[in-house]
């Protein structure tokens, strides 16, 4: 995924969807090419990988004259948590400080009336930042905004969908979380295996072991080529087959 370093996005370009469609497409390709790694990494890493994918894609079409809000947003997302200077890379004293800065930078993009792709990526980053800060309500709102802005076939949708599932679980709404994981499998079928594994886990935690067993028991048949079949078998064994 390479782009000439001379590519520049102007403020006018930021209002034209083709630039960010290109970026979103590149991000989708990045995720698709690494599907096995993303799936095997587990839900704790998925939102991070999605954000990295989006960052890499959009960064490839960024130039020094990029729109101020988008440029600041991208720089903030790519910042480092450290007390030592790293060239022109933004640095933050703590992880919380970085996440707060991402939220503020994303808000600037969201309020700027840019392309739907820019809004979607900013909303996704904002949702992840709120999630890491354990701010469940604003995280959910940001993920919903991403899903409203992104196209139905956007490969990055699974990041927001799994975010909604994680938020529901964090709030103790296990039935809602199970339904959210089912939505992941339905709307992001490339990640249906991970969605089924997590739905079974949530159902087990909710005391619905029979439903969890049913999902895990048919896992191999439903997801023959999944790298998660071994993990599904182990979880089924822990639940105990009937």
Description:
With 242 residues, the chain is mainly α. It contains 14 helices and two strands. The chain has helices at residues 11-14, 17-33, 35-41, 43-59, 68-77, 95-110, 116-132, 136-149, 157-170, 174-187, 192-205, 209-217, 219-222, 229-239, and strands at 80-81, 91-92. Strands 1-2 form a two-stranded parallel sheet. The chain is elongated and about 55 Å long.
Task: Summarize this structure briefly.
By secondary structure, the protein is mostly helical.
Salient structural properties:
elongated; two-stranded parallel ribbon; 242 residues; disordered N terminus; 2 strands
Structural topology:
Blueprint: H1 11-14, H2 17-33, H3 35-41, H4 43-59, H5 68-77, E1 80-81, E2 91-92, H6 95-110, H7 116-132, H8 136-149, H9 157-170, H10 174-187, H11 192-205, H12 209-217, H13 219-222, H14 229-239
Parallel strand pairs: 1-2
Helix pairs in contact: 2-4, 2-7, 4-7, 4-9, 5-6, 6-7, 7-8, 7-9, 8-9, 9-10, 10-11, 11-12, 12-14
Compute the number of structural domains: 2
How do the strands line up in the largest sheet? 1-2
SSE pattern: HHHHHEEHHHHHHHHH
Please state roughly what percent of the residues sit in beta strands, choosing from under 5%, 5-15%, 15-25%, 25-35%, 35-45% or over 45%.
under 5%
- Helical fraction equals 55-70%
Distance between the termini: 49 Å
Please state the structural category.
mainly alpha
The helix tally amounts to 14
Low-pLDDT runs of 5+ residues are 1-21, 59-66
User: How many distinct beta strands?
Assistant: 2
- Give the C-alpha Rg: 19 Å
């Amino acid at each position: 995924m390479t782009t000439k370093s001379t590519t520049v996005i102007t403020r006018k370009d930021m209002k034209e969807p083709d630039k960010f469609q290109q970026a979103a497409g590149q991000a989708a390709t990045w995720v698709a090419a690494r599907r096995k790694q993303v799936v095997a990494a587990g839900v704790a890493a998925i939102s991070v990988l999605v954000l990295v994918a989006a960052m890499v894609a959009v960064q490839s079409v960024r130039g020094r004259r990029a729109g101020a809000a988008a440029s600041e947003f991208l720089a903030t997302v790519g910042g480092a948590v450290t007390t030592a200077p790293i060239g022109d890379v933004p640095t933050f004293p703590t992880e919380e400080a970085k996440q707060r800065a991402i939220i503020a930078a994303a808000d600037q993009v969201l309020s700027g009336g840019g392309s739907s792709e820019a809004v979607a990526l900013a909303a996704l980053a904002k949702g992840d930042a709120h999630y890491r800060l354990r701010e469940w309500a604003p995280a959910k709102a940001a993920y919903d905004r991403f899903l409203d802005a992104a196209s139905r076939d956007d490969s990055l949708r699974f990041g927001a969908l799994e975010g909604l599932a994680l938020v529901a679980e964090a709030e103790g709404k296990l039935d809602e979380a199970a339904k959210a994981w089912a939505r992941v499998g339905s709307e992001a079928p490339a990640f249906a295996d991970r969605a089924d594994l997590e739905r079974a886990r949530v159902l087990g935690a909710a005391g619905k072991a029979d439903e969890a067993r049913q999902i895990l028991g048919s896992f191999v048949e439903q997801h023959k080529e999944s790298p998660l079949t071994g993990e599904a078998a182990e979880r089924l064994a822990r639940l105990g087959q009937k």
